[in-house]
Amino acid sequence: MQASKLVLAALVVAACSGTASATAIDWHISGAGNLGSSTGADGSTTLSYDLTESGYGYREWSITGVAPEAGTYSFLWDYSGLHSWFSVTARLTTTTGATLVDAYAWGCCESPSNGFDYSGGYTFYNVNAGDTIGFFAGGSHYDYSQILRGSLTLTPTSQLFDGGSTSPVPEADPAAMFAIGMTAVGALVARRRRA
C-alpha cells in the first residue's frame, strides 16, 4: 500500500512538471549561396547563409533536423544578418507554421535594413521520433548590392514557450507541485479509509 502511494505521488509530480527534452538535434541548412554550420561549447548550433548577387526576389533557407526521440523540443533562437539596405525584409518561420520574425524597412538604416538581430524562444510540442522540425529563414531587398547574409543560432533549453510567442510558459514551482501531489495522495487515502 505504501509503495503504491509513492508511485502515485511520483506520477502526479511527473505529469505536472513541464520541461523540454534535452536530446540534441543534428541541424542542417539548405538553400543557395555559401552555407555554414558550427557548434558552440554550450550545445548551440549556428547555421549561416551568404548569398551575393542574390537578385531582387525573396530567397529562403531551410534549417531542419530530425527528432531522435518522441518528446518536446525547445530552443532559444537568435536570427541576425544583413539583407542589404533598400526595401529590406527579414523573415523567420517554423515548420509548424509559426511566424517568429516578419520585418520590413523601406529605406536605409532602420532594422532590418543595414543589419538586424532578433531573438526569442520556440517550443515544438508533441514531436514523434523521426519527425522533421525546423525553421525557414529568408528575406529580400531592392538594393544594387544584392547581399543576403544571415545566421540562426539555436540553443536547446528546458524552458517551454507558448505557440509562436517568445514568452516562456510559466513553470510550476516544484514545491507547489509536490504539495499538490501529496494532497491528492492524502485525499485518496482518506477516501479509502472511509470506504
TrEMBL record:
<keyword id="KW-0732">Signal</keyword>
<protein>
    <recommendedName>
        <fullName>PEP-CTERM sorting domain-containing protein</fullName>
    </recommendedName>
</protein>
<feature type="signal peptide">
    <location>
        <begin position="1"/>
        <end position="22"/>
    </location>
</feature>
